[in-house]
Write a structure and sequence with these properties.
440 residues, alpha/beta, three-stranded antiparallel beta sheet, 13 strands
Length: 440
């Protein structure tokens, strides 16, 4: 696991979008405030499209300012931002590539850059990318953007991590200190102090591991110091290990403690997106991503909360969090790769990322930020940056691509009590092994 060293700041969920057809078009120079001069010797500006999925009022205005900034910074290209729903953008991107009519810049998942490169869905950046530009990012994220052939196929747009968010008023009420929560035993002991029971129901829940944004995978990776459901070197299934069975039993035990009906109720509330039990004070602690603070800023601006690193499974195993991120890519067949790269370079520059971090609150994979940033004046951001130091991104190798679709339903059977946790993991191990055999 490669660790980041200093201050990792910025951009996390910012992939922008644009679905309105990606066919090349031009615009006469000088028309509109962002119109430019000659791009191709004919007095025309090359029109480009940038696809992403951020449409909320908390993000879209800043994305648009970023795009406007690029358009005003030069006179050869004009980029249009179009947001596409998260559930649609990826399939539409693949369809447009297959049709020979891709967009010009695509925001995409960091974890699957290597797979998309192997499938011929993205253009290599090697002919544009300089060593200086590459060196501005932490190694592990450039590695994640590198294909099996050694070429770089994207640049990191944003990264995230996971942490435990805690309600400071609740902690003060029961005499808890955040720094005392170092491992899983400490976490559950704290939850028991924070619980408020009312007969057979709960007025306040201290903590439930898989609510928020840290499902079983997050706790498996934490307990195994960065390894997920397969071995790091050989990519063999490692599902029903003794450690994983202990993790699953622990997760199921917390659900049983509060009751399946209470868990289902809270899960439904989170899934609906209409309420937030942590923001309302119905939960005292919640495992979530670094992007969650932006939601709290909007939905619970007066909430006094803090950050705890993901606790160690056992003393010495590490405060490991799983994280991912987004990248900017040039889809295969884009009409103007040079212009696409100029936009990618602008968006991932220190200045633009500083703007995005300060206004949106996301984190960046750049390695050249320091305490002088406005972003770092917020203590929550500094605490989340510490979490980033022990964050790993599990890259799925091409040969087992898609295994999660086989694994997750079986693991969930254990989490939800449909089967015993041991049986669920044994079944998932067999299914994973069969999946690999059938795809060789």
């Amino acid at each position: 696991m490669k660790r980041r060293l200093t201050i990792i700041m910025l951009t996390t969920a910012l992939a922008v979008s644009a679905l309105a057809g990606c066919a090349g078009s031009t615009k006469p120079a000088g028309t509109g405030s962002n119109g430019g001069a000659v791009a191709d010797g004919k007095g025309e500006v090359q029109e480009l499209q940038f696809w992403g999925w951020w449409s909320s009022e908390a993000r879209k205005p800043y994305i648009q300012k970023m795009v406007d900034g690029f358009n005003e910074s030069q006179d050869k290209y004009h980029v249009t931002y179009v947001d596409i729903p998260f559930g649609d953008i990826f399939t539409k991107n693949i369809a447009q590539i297959a049709a020979g009519n891709p967009c010009d810049i695509m925001a995409n998942s960091m974890e699957e850059v290597r797979f998309r490169a192997s499938q011929g869905q993205v253009e290599s950046l090697d002919k544009f990318l300089t060593e200086k530009e590459k060196g501005a990012f932490y190694d592990q994220y450039i590695d994640a953007c590198t294909g099996d052939d050694g070429s770089v196929y994207g640049l990191p747009l944003s990264v995230d991590t996971r942490a435990i968010y805690y309600n400071k008023a609740h902690f003060e009420e029961v005499g808890l200190k955040a720094e005392d929560i170092k491992n899983w035993d400490d976490l559950i002991a704290a939850a028991r102090k924070l619980d408020v029971r009312n007969g057979d129901s709960w007025d306040r829940v201290g903590f439930l591991p898989t609510l928020g944004n840290a499902d079983v995978d997050a706790w498996i990776i934490n307990a195994n110091s960065g390894q997920g459901w397969f071995t790091r070197d050989t990519f063999e299934p490692a599902v029903n290990t003794d450690t994983n069975k202990e993790v699953m039993s622990w997760i199921r035990g917390q659900i049983v403690y509060y009751g399946q009906s209470k868990f289902d109720e809270l899960q439904a509330v989170f899934d609906s997106g209409m309420q937030d039990p942590f923001a309302s004070g119905a939960m005292s602690m919640l495992a979530h991503t670094s992007a969650y603070k932006s939601s709290l800023k909007q939905n619970a601006p007066d909430l006094n909360y803090g950050i705890i690193q993901m606790p160690e499974f056992k003393p010495g195993t590490g405060h490991v969090a799983n994280g991912g991120g987004f990248v900017l890519e040039i889809p295969k067949g884009a009409k103007c790769p040079e212009g696409s790269y100029e936009f990618i370079k602008y968006v991932t520059s220190k200045e633009t990322q500083d703007f995005l971090a300060t206004n949106i609150g996301d984190f960046s994979a750049r390695n050249d930020f320091d305490d002088s940033s406005e972003f770092y004046k917020n203590p929550i951001n500094k605490d989340l940056a510490k979490c980033l130091e022990e964050t790993v991104t599990v890259i799925v190798p091409n040969q087992i691509k898609g295994y999660q679709d086989v694994l997750k339903p079986l693991v969930d059977e254990g989490k939800l009590g449909i089967k015993t946790t041991d049986q669920a993991l044994d079944d998932a191990q067999k299914a994973f092994a069969n999946f690999i055999k059938s795809n060789q």
